[in-house]
TrEMBL record:
Native source species: Pelagimonas phthalicica
Any one GO biological process: methylation
Pfam families (alphabetical): Methyltransf_33 (PF10017)
Alphabetized UniProt keyword annotations: Methyltransferase, Transferase
Domain of life of the native organism: Bacteria
EC number: 2.1.1.44
GO molecular function terms listed in the Swiss-Prot or TrEMBL record: L-histidine N(alpha)-methyltransferase activity
Name assigned to this protein: Histidine-specific methyltransferase EgtD
Histidine-specific methyltransferase SAM-dependent domain boundaries: 12-309
Length: 311
């Protein structure tokens, strides 16, 4: 088996550090344990959560145009290879692809989806890489002598604050043989639709958010009372982002191992940022990281964008 990228003490240490800040916080990457991944999958099916289905529709509609940015024999590298529905749309349009390189933090998940892809695309070289790409991009295996097109869908970039997003885009830009970046990004829209997408009627997103506390209880020796916190989605217009918070319903104290954390009534833990973009802000972010926004595809309602960045 692969060596784990994340250990329990990393989770505890990270939580202790971010809960010690004046604005208590938890890192969004901890959402995705087994249950969290299942809940996210359920979120993508919600009527209010438009991003996944809209991005898939754009990819299906523009697959041939996107395929032009992947040269014959080239490498398609995917960051955060998810459930691979989106990957398959591109692979179907790339019969002469040299290799597919999925990067994901979960080794188990990667091996499973790699095996499935090899079955569907028998001639395709599939080279999975276990990596926390939000932190650093690993050296690519062997001598990469073919052009690399990076696929970064899902508006995962939106989890990062502008500085970190630019730094990640710069690291991608610096990859040897980099040819293009296909970037999925969610767009600014009416506040009520944004809030609904992150505070759905069925409460799946609330469960997803609260699952962080459940995970800390199970994996980091914490004693959160899940009934003592409520899910909240806020639109921060100034920073153009949805913020998810867990709001303490009463004054309480919580322990993680030997560390104690006090909560006032109404005090929140900031658990996620999901930045939303405009054509102008995307183009600016591209230029600040050494890219040019070559093309941008959206759906008819301009809800989501799939952009091609060129070095
Ligand atoms: C996977 C980070 C793109 O921000 O929309 C969905 C995560 N959080 N609902 C997003 C998420 C709450 C999602 N990303």
């Amino acid at each position: 088996m692969d060596k784990p990228v994340i250990t329990h003490s990393q989770l505890a240490n990270s939580a202790i550090e971010t809960l010690s800040r004046p604005q208590k916080a938890l890192e969004a990457k901890w959402f995705y344990d087994h249950r969290g991944s299942e809940l996210f999958e359920a979120i993508t099916q919600l009527p209010e959560y438009y991003p996944t289905r809209t991005e898939i529709a754009i990819l299906e509609d523009k697959a041939a145009q996107l395929a032009r940015f992947v040269p014959d024999g080239g490498i398609l590298m995917e960051l955060g290879s998810g459930a691979s529905v989106k990957t398959r749309i591109l692979l179907d349009a790339l019969p002469r692809l040299g290799a597919y390189m999925p990067l994901d933090i979960s080794g188990e998940f990667l091996q499973l989806s790699a095996a499935q892809l090899r079955r569907t695309y028998p001639g395709l070289q599939v080279t999975p890489i276990v990596a926390d790409f939000m932190q650093a991009l690993p050296p690519l295996p062997g001598a990469v002598d073919q052009p690399v097109t990076v696929f970064f869908p899902g508006s995962t970039i939106g989890n990062l604050e502008p500085e970190a997003a630019i730094a990640l885009l710069q690291r991608i830009r610096d990859l040897p043989q980099v040819h293009a970046l296909i970037l999925g990004a969610d767009l600014i829209k009416e506040e009520s639709r944004l809030i609904a997408a992150y505070d759905d009627a069925q409460g799946v997103t609330a469960e997803f958010n609260l699952n962080l506390l459940r995970r800390l209880n199970f994996e980091a020796g914490a004693n959160f009372d899940l009934a003592g916190f409520k899910h909240e989605a806020r639109w921060n217009a100034e920073l153009a982002r949805i913020e998810m918070h867990l709001v303490s319903l009463r004054a309480q104290e919580v322990q993680i191992g030997a560390e104690r954390f006090r909560f006032e009534t109404g005090e929140s833990i900031h658990t996620e940022n999901s930045h939303k973009y405009s054509h102008a802000s995307l183009s600016q972010m591209a230029e600040q990281s050494g890219w040019q926004l070559a093309q941008s595809f959206t759906d008819a309602s301009k809800d989501f964008s799939v952009s091609v960045l060129a070095p």
